[in-house]
Fold each of these.
Amino acid sequence: MIEVVIALLAGVLTGFLLRKKPFIAHMHRFTFPIVLLLLGSIGISIGLNDTLLENFLTLSWDALVITVFALAGTILCSYLLWRFILKKKIK
Amino acid sequence: MRDSIIVALTLVLGILLGIFGRAYIPGDISVITKYLLYLLLFCAGISIGGDSELINKLRNTHPIFLLLPLATIVGTLMGSALSGVFLPHRTTTECMAVGSGFAYYSLSSILISQLKGVDLGVVSLLSNVIREVFVLLFAVPLATYFGKTTPISCAGATSMDSTLPFIVKASGSEFIVIALVHGILVDFSVPFLVTFFCSF
């Protein structure tokens, strides 16, 4: 898993060193096809996996529950920060 | 919008290929995806490191607003940890790994599929898409009832790109820089937090 962090940090360093090069601003054009290839391969893994397809409803339920709680926590923290600190800085 | 449609179509195409074309697919494609993932992370890193405006954006933001990404991360992680109580077949750290996507569904679902299996990867994909759609639909009431920075927090890593126009509409143009800085910082935390919570 350390490879994940190394790949990202190597990218940050490369980006910083090459920040003057014009192609840096158009990185999206390079990354988008990679994202598509990866999501396509996730799609294939989903399609190949019969148990996963059968459990799709359960997985959707898990996703919904996690998202509802994650958003509730986020709204709570963000609201408290806004109410007691940030609101005064904006005015 | 066009990109989102292409992304959705690619995913559906992949699923159909997996179901109907399984005879033609070589056994294990995870080796290829692993190296593609590293390449994606490397490119994502270049975008962040090469953003020469980043320092200026940070300088123009009142330091107190740097608490916002922190509130987003703490709130999301607390909430997703709590969701584990209601999902007995999921561990707390699995739920936190899914929450750590902060609506950045492409990278987080790919990472989780690689590190924890496609099962949790699908949960992550759905969860983070729901989060993004939630902001697109409810940015205005969020700003009205919970403060102008709340749509930014809910948008997570997408507050710098796909949800930014909706945030500006809901909170006002004076929040553009705050949303950008928030997006960049939360975006940067995604691979670290996802990898961390997948390691348990």
Amino acid sequence: MFLNKLEEIYKSSMCNQYYNADLFTSFYSYFQNSMEEKRKYLTPYEFAYINSLNTEDAIRLFLFFTNEEINKDSALIIKPFFECDNHDCDYKIFLDEDSVDEGIYHCILCSKEYLHDEIISSVKIYFEINYKFFEEVEQYDKNSTYEILKRLPGNLKDGSPLSTRDYYKEEFLPDKGATSIRDVLQANQLEDGKVVSKSFEEVALKFAEDYSMFLEG
Amino acid sequence: MISEETLRNFYKKEIRQFLKNKNIERLERLNPKGVTQKLGDYSNYVAVIKEEVRSGRLTKKSLDDFLYSNLFHSKNNLHYIFELEDFIIKQGVPFDRFSDFVSKNPGLLVNEYLFDKAISTDWELCQTRFNFNSDNSIATIEFLIKVLPVKTARGTTHLFAAVTVNLTEKLISIKYNQTVLECSAHSKTWLTSTLKNTLVSRAPFTSLKMLIKGINEYHGKKTIFKMFNNLSQEAEKILNSHVKDDTKQKIIQFLEEMGINPERDEYVKQIISVVYQDLSESFDNNTFKDGWVFRFVFREGEFTRASSRSDNFDPIYNSQVYWNLKELIYKKAELIEAGFNWFIKINNETFTLFTRIEIKGDAFIVYYYNKGRYKLKRKEKENYVFKQIRGNL
């Protein structure tokens, strides 16, 4: 069921034109492992590192899974944040949760305040796993091999998903570094003027008061 | 440039010592008898330096060397390090047309005396310096930038940022005096990102075609772990050599007798840790040849932060906390921060360097502790840190 839902998104969005099935398999494994570990967030930075992708590509891939129709649940929820810059704190301050007044954010661990205009260039993005999205009553015999095989997506029938358990490997190529919100906006644009994630555009507009100015830097 | 706002970056004692070394006499002008000096009053110092330079008793060159070694290097204890993606000059290329380049880019103020520089705005370049390798290729390029005025306990003080572009390791650092930096009303993150932006897209830096790349947080955590692991290997090796050959066999036997599955490697390792811990108590600081780790911070899962440090900068290997957490650290192989005491050989002399490196935002943040011969050989020490980061990135 879980896989079906992800694959449905992979195929129905333009994701399959940008990312091949191998990478989707790796994404699926990463997603599944994270859910098994009961993690709250998927991080594109970790995924980029594991798969030797640049961060922009990793973020764009994740954005495809936030792009359900408006008013409908999505697999991932965009969570923009920045880190408190007090040493020994580094609390993650989420823009949608830790705003205390217009344009002011507050670190609940050390009480430091930040102005919107000062943090906007250092915002990073995590993706919250929407566990509800995957919760559904499964109406099939889970011991039936036939049912299990039938439910596997096409690209998995010939092999098993890649294992991403062995995260620590020496031979990774350096990736393209961290990415600011501006890079994410860039990643969100497709060649033909379309956007990957409508919900990301909404988020960006919500917290970037002067959108065009901030785009220009 | 020679103003109270600039000189407040120094202790008065430091300026007096410098002038004394240059045989400037009549220093009593700086502290007239019977007059109580205010903490933030540097007006006499400004007047004396200007007078001495104009009279020729103090050369602009020697004043420049003093300002350079402090403002570019030893005063700066907080460094933000990024990757250098592009730069107009490439590594290893002998730069014969150096004087050409300098005359075509007067805005860069290459080797122009700081004494002659009049600071008029914020985010303003004060001087550029080039450092060459023995083959005449460029090793590093350094900039001194006046960032903003800030209010410190001594009064309005210029916050400076020194920038080092290291072409060999393709890294760039933005360096501050943390004491002054913390007095700014702006966040450190914003100041640093604005400086980055200035270097990439504002005159006179645009002619350098600089491209700066942030560090992926996950990649950074792996890098810090590798540095930690490398430096800790020596301790592990020494410990290993003291562990008797049949130790592992005995542990397995013990687990079997206790009815615990001896195949579980983590149990065996945990018991070996106890053996190591016992042995490490006999360690003293002369045991190590390359240095040691004195602090670390890591995350367990998404929300738990675990850390340990020895406040006297001793090795962490003889603390129980380290051995209790060691298996957890090695399982994840990620650290968000570590403190290193590195032994660095410079011209056959060994220097110790106490630093703490963390990954935050999109930068490695390196803090230099005021310990040991902290001010000496800063350039060499900074290059050593660059090398360590690049070697493990």
